């Protein structure tokens, strides 16, 4: 390799100085890296590859590395790294799968030095060894990591993670031979560069891709990881198993994470999408950022601390085509704008309230402080620490107890266990759940279930009333029509003498006694528009229309009377009203009218038929189910706002498609997640699983699939299967061979948990019908249940 020379002179040993500043770039940046003495920064992207000098007041462009008439894809960079030992050595990861090194000491315009094209897909990350000058590591989208010796023309070792794409690789700052790799399947692997055949350790760090990782510069065993699950986790790698010691919840996917120099607890992060800010977190206080840089207008793609021993300058590149130097003293502090009060309900109804001590100290009603009891005010005060820059606040915590009876949650547990959410007809589910609520002394909930049954049940499924009574309230038709049997003269005369009478009345919506469309209807049955001639003042004074008897218990006979003017009068009522002329001819033709009635009509309860009806009902006797949907939607919202999310979710499941479209998916998901969380707190795992299974929300039904992990061991060597195929990567034997037919099982596989042997479900079932020993010949007594 040629002798390397500097592009610019160093600042000579003087302290780093500067201010918050920025410069516009020619194109969006994908990554940035700074040289060892913090005087230059390299910016790389798809259409930019330049070196800028860091001066007191501004960025100054020093070198453009994209040269040539037709720049190749080798200049299209996904990542860039400046060697911290050799100041003129750069490495880039190209989007075409090439790994390129650059020698800034070359006298020619083209500074390209080495070109490695062994990766088949985009290279996501390159990393120099912190102390070994010629060692370079790369991680690619093809799932492989390669170690290069820059004195050779090809890689010296290849590491296969047996997994999906490699998103980041980082050499350990303290362990010479160790590096960490993060993958898109959520795993993190630790490797020894001397053993390329197998990783030293692997653990699942995130639910989703792990985009970045970074070793702590001072603490040997700390590794920070960030992923799509919006979390930053700090792992202690000195233990036998990786231990999560800190976790920071951010608001977007974490694209970059960098430990802050000279500050053990601080790290900086930026997001891959949505959020444009850069956050500095104190991992001991993960709920609010320690500092925020809000200068960028688009997604931040690269962050780096200017010097490995200076915590006050941060450099960043972005898709908004700007390069920034941030002064830490200019960062905004979210804690200064945070609400200093907190309020939270406990699981059993206790209320905790925290506020500044100065706001509460004047309250004379406060109970005295009892240090050993958590249910009385507890005071916290942090002693001043010069290295701690968070604001110091003396706060007081008050816990208010609820009454013993109100804290009992037995009703919730019993309701969850006894409710039926599926497997039976809708009406039976409603009746059962109403009964459960009634037995638990929850009358309002019980009534709600009963009303839901009445609203949404098919009328054909309602019970038929008996011959001498009217059924329950749920079976009554809408009373928009009246129909009565004929009442003979003798019965009316008897009733007029004071004797009691009871008629058999049938009110059935589908079997009306009157048909308004029948041309042969009697005139007393309501000829259209002329019904007002049927009533007189004296005819309805003491007239019983009908009596009603309840299905379960008999009630005293009640008289139902119509008002004296049942319909608006259009003429003066006379003692013997005559029929209008245009009706006399029709009445004369009626087979039910006598000659005298054709001449003069005088309707009395004795002389006329007692059939009264409104010929055209105002609306259908049975309303469609969708008519009640707005009411049910408001009811569900009411229960949810009152905290009874159990009722809201149960009704959602039982009603199903009847109400699902009336409530937006986000609200449904919120209710489901709240109810499932409560069930799991009470360890009602079976009920929780049933709710997930019966859920009407697609975001909930997939929970069982995403949160279930099946660990499989090889049936030959008894070791865990690390890959997804049928071949064990240790003993190189097919792990899913049927013990009966000795063929590979490509479908449903059943195995014995005692000896790990198994095979096709049908074959194993048939074998165990006549044999008790394992078909593989291991001697184990297998049992199929």
Description:
The protein is 18% helix and 24% strand. The chain contains 17 helices and 34 strands. The protein is of the alpha+beta class. α11 (645-655) packs across α13 (665-681) and α13 (665-681) packs antiparallel against α14. The strands form nine sheets. It has a four-stranded antiparallel beta sheet with strand order 1-28-27-26, with no helix packed on it. The radius of gyration is 42 Å and the shape is globular. Residues 1-14, 368-382, 384-388, 463-560 and 582-619 have low confidence and may be disordered.
Q: What proportion of the residues is helical, as a percent range?
A: 10-25%
Distance between the termini: 70 Å
Beta-strand content bin: 15-25%
The poorly predicted ranges are: 1-14, 368-382, 384-388, 463-560, 582-619
Total number of β-strand segments?
34
Which descriptors would you attach to this protein?
785 residues, 17 helices, 4-stranded antiparallel beta sheet, disordered N terminus
Topology:
Layout: E1 21-24, E2 31-34, E3 40-44, E4 49-54, E5 59-64, E6 77-82, E7 89-94, E8 99-103, E9 112-116, E10 123-128, E11 135-140, E12 144-149, E13 155-160, E14 166-171, E15 178-183, E16 187-192, E17 201-204, E18 210-215, E19 222-227, E20 231-236, E21 243-249, E22 254-259, E23 266-271, E24 278-282, E25 291-293, E26 300-307, E27 310-318, E28 322-327, H1 334-337, E29 342-345, E30 351-356, H2 357-360, E31 378-380, E32 395-400, H3 404-407, H4 410-418, H5 426-439, H6 443-456, H7 489-496, H8 581-589, H9 595-599, H10 629-641, H11 645-655, H12 657-660, H13 665-681, H14 685-694, H15 698-701, H16 703-706, E33 749-751, E34 758-760, H17 761-770
Antiparallel strand pairs: 1-28, 2-3, 3-4, 4-5, 6-7, 7-8, 8-9, 10-11, 11-12, 12-13, 14-15, 15-16, 16-17, 18-19, 19-20, 20-21, 22-23, 23-24, 24-25, 26-27, 27-28, 29-30, 30-32, 31-32, 33-34
Helix pairs in contact: 5-6, 10-11, 11-13, 13-14
């Amino acid at each position: 390799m040629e002798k390397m020379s500097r592009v610019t002179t160093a600042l000579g040993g003087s302290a780093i100085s500067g201010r918050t500043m920025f410069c516009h770039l020619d194109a969006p940046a994908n990554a940035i890296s700074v040289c060892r003495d913090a005087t230059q920064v390299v910016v790389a992207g798809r259409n930019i590859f330049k070196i800028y000098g860091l001066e007191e007041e501004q960025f100054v462009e020093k070198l453009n590395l994209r040269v040539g008439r037709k720049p190749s894809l080798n200049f299209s960079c996904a990542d860039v790294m400046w060697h911290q030992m050799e100041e003129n050595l750069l490495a880039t990861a190209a989007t075409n799968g090439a790994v390129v090194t650059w020698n800034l000491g070359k006298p020619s315009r083209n500074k390209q030095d080495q070109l490695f094209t062994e990766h088949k897909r985009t290279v996501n990350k390159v990393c120099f060894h912190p102390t070994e000058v010629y060692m370079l590591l790369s991680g690619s989208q093809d799932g492989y990591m390669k170690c290069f010796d820059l004195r050779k023309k090809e890689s010296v070792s290849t590491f296969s993670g047996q997994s999906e794409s490699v998103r980041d690789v980082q050499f350990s700052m303290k362990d010479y031979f160790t590096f960490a790799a993060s993958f898109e399947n959520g795993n993190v692997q630790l490797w020894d560069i001397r053993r390329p055949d197998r990783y030293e350790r692997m653990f699942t760090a995130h639910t989703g891709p792990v985009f970045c990782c970074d070793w702590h510069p001072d603490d040997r065993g700390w590794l920070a990881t960030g992923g799509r699950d919006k979390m930053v986790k700090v792992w202690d790698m000195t233990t036998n198993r990786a231990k999560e010691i800190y976790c920071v919840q951010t608001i977007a996917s974490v694209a970059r994470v960098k430990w802050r120099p000279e500050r053990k607890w601080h790290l900086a992060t930026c997001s891959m999408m949505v959020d444009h800010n850069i956050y500095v977190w104190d991992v001991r206080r993960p709920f609010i950022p320690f500092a925020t840089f809000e200068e960028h207008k688009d997604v931040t793609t690269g962050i780096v601390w200017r010097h490995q021993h200076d915590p006050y300058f941060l450099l960043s590149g972005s898709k908004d085509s700007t390069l920034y130097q941030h002064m830490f003293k200019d960062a905004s502090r979210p804690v200064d704008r945070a609400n200093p009060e907190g309020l939270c309900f406990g699981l059993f109804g206790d209320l905790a309230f925290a506020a500044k001590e100065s706001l509460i100290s004047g309250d004379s009603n406060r109970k005295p402080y009892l240090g050993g009891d958590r249910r009385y005010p507890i005071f916290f005060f942090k002693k001043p620490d010069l290295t701690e820059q968070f604001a110091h606040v003396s706060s007081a915590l008050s816990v208010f107890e609820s009454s013993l009876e109100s804290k009992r949650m037995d009703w919730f547990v019993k309701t969850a266990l006894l409710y039926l959410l599926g497997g039976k007809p809708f009406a039976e589910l409603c009746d059962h759940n109403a009964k459960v609520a009634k037995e638990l002394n929850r009358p309002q909930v019980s009534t709600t279930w009963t009303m839901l049954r009445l609203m949404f049940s098919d009328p054909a499924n309602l019970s038929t009333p008996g011959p001498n009574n009217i059924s329950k309230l749920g079976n009554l038709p809408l009373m928009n029509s009246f129909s009565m049997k004929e009442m003979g003269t003798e019965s009316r005369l008897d009733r007029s003498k004071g004797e009691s009478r009871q008629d058999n009345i049938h009110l059935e919506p589908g079997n009306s006694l009157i048909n308004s469309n029948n041309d042969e209807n009697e005139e007393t049955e309501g000829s259209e528009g002329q019904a007002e001639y049927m009533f007189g003042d004296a005819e309805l004074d003491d007239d019983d229309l009908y009596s009603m008897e309840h299905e379960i218990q008999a009630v005293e006979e009640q008289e139902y009377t119509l008002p004296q003017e049942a319909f608006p009068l259009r003429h003066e009522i006379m003692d013997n009203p005559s029929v209008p002329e245009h009706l006399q001819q029709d009445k004369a033709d009626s087979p039910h009218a006598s000659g005298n009635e054709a001449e003069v009509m005088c309707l009395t309860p004795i002389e006329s038929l007692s059939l009264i009806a409104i010929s055209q009902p105002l609306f259908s006797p049975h309303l469609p189910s969708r008519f009640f949907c707005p009411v049910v939607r408001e009811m569900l919202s009411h229960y949810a706002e009152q905290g009874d999310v159990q009722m809201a979710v149960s009704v959602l499941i039982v009603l199903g498609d009847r109400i699902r479209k009336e409530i937006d998916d986000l609200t449904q998901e919120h209710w489901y997640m709240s109810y499932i969380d409560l069930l799991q707190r009470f360890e009602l795992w079976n009920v929780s699983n049933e709710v997930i299974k019966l859920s009407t929300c697609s975001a909930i039904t997939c929970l069982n699939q995403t949160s279930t992990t099946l660990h499989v061991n090889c049936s030959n060597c008894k070791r865990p299967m690390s890959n997804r195929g049928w071949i064990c990567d240790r003993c190189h034997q097919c792990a899913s061979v049927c013990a009966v037919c000795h063929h590979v099982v490509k479908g449903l596989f059943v195995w014995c948990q005692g000896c790990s042997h198994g095979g096709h479900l049908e074959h194993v079932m048939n074998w165990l019908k006549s044999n008790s020993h394992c078909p593989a010949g291991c001697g184990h007594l297998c049992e199929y249940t």
